[in-house]
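call fold target=Y-family DNA polymerase
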Amino acid sequence: MNSAPRPVAGGDDPETAAREPVLRAPSHQLFALIDVNSFYVSCQRVFEPWLNGRPVVVLSNNDGCCIALSKEAKDAGVQMGEPWFKLAPRAARLGLTARSSNYELYGDMSSRVMQVIGEHSPQVEIYSIDEAFAGYRGPLSTVLPFARDLRADIRRKLDLPVCVGMGPTKTLAKLANGLAKSFDHLHGVCIWDTVPESARDTLLSRLPVQKVWGVGRRMAEKLQAAGIGTVADLRHADPVVIRRRFSVTLMRTVLELRGEPCIDLEESRDLQDQLIFSRSFARPVTTAKEMEEVISNYAQRAASRLRQRSSQAKTLTVYARTAAHSPWAQHAPSTTVPLRSPTSDPLALTRAAKALLPLMIEGTRYAKAGLVLTELSRAGEQLAFDLFAEPAQEDSLGPLLEEIRSKAGANAIGLGRSGMKTRSAWEMRRDMMSPRFTTAWDEVLEVSA
C-alpha cells in the first residue's frame, strides 16, 4: 500500500478533514477495526523497553523461522519466514535480537487489549489475537475523538501501539486500518469517509484485489482471469454477476466496498466445531513411555482450554506422525475415542488419549502429536435422548488444578507423567524466550527503586 496516494488532500489537516460533515447519519452503525502493530514484537517491548528502535524478530515453534518482524528488522532486509539458522550468522552485524515465541505472554496481553476495547464499545468482535472489530454510534463530532481515545487508552494502560480504522462497513474499516498503518501523518487513526473521494478512488484503483479482506490468493487469480484486478474493479462489478459466477460472500464484499453494510458484528460466536492442540517436538519421540508423557500433557492442556471456553467435548481424536520428508520409516497412527459423556475433565481426556499408545511402533521417530476434540457443547449441557450414556460424574479435579495453576503457575501441577517438574527433551525448544511476565509468579518483572 506504500504506492497509494495520501488519503488526505495535500496540505489538509486530518483532524480538520475528520470534522467535515461527510459521515453517515449519527444513527448509522460505524465499524472500527483495532489492530495492534507487530503484536508479538510489541508485547516483547512492553517488558523489554531496550528493544525499542532495534530490529527484533520473533521465531516460530522450536526457534525455526521468523513469524513476526519489527519495522527495523524489515528495513534491515529480514524476510518473513526466513529460517533462523540462516539469519543467526549475520544477526550481530544487523544488531538483530531474536525472541522465541512466548504464547503465554501474547495470549494474556491479547485478553487485556480486548478488555480495554470493551470499555469503549459495548459491541466487540474478537477477530484474531491482535485484532478486533468494535461497533460505534454517536454524533459525527465524536467519531475521531472516539478512535483517538481508544488508541491512547490502550497505549496508556498496556503500552501497545495500535491503529484504528473506521468506516460504514467492516470491509471499509479494514481498508481504513491499512491506511492508518501506512501513512504516518494520520497518527494511527483513519476514518474512511473523511478521506477525499478522489483519493479513495485513486487508492482503490492501485490496490490489487487480493488486498480486500476475505479475498485470498486463489480467489484473486479467478477474479483476475475475469478481468477484475484491482479493488476498484471489484467495487464496480455487478453484484448479481459476482454472485452467479463466484459466491454470495463475494457479492457481500462488493456491496460493502460501496458502503452498504452486509457483514454484522459477531459479538457472541457459536461454539467452534473443534478444538485442536498439537505441537512439533524439539527432538523425535521414539518410545511409548515418552509418548504417554506427551499425550498426557496435551490432554490436560486441552482440558484447560475447554474449561476457559466453558465447553465440553464428546469425542477425542489423538494422533502422532513422523516428519513428512524424513529418511526414516514413515508412520502416522491415529484413533478416535467416543467419550462416555461430554466432558472437560482432564483425567477422562488423559485416559482416552492413551488409546494411541498400542498403535505406536517402538523406535519410530515421531516428530509431532496432537489432539482433536469434537462434538463440543456448552459446559453442563446433557445430550438429549442419549439413553445409553452414563451420568456425568462431578468434575472437581479440573477446577482444583486450574486454581493451583492460577496461583502457582501453568506448570506447577499436572496428572501422571505430565506433572513432572523438569522439562522433557521432547518439549518445544524456546531457547530465546523472555519471561512470562504476566502469567507466572516466579517470572513477574521486578522493579528496583
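return ok
DSSP finds 16 helices and 13 strands in the chain. The chain has a mean pLDDT of 82.
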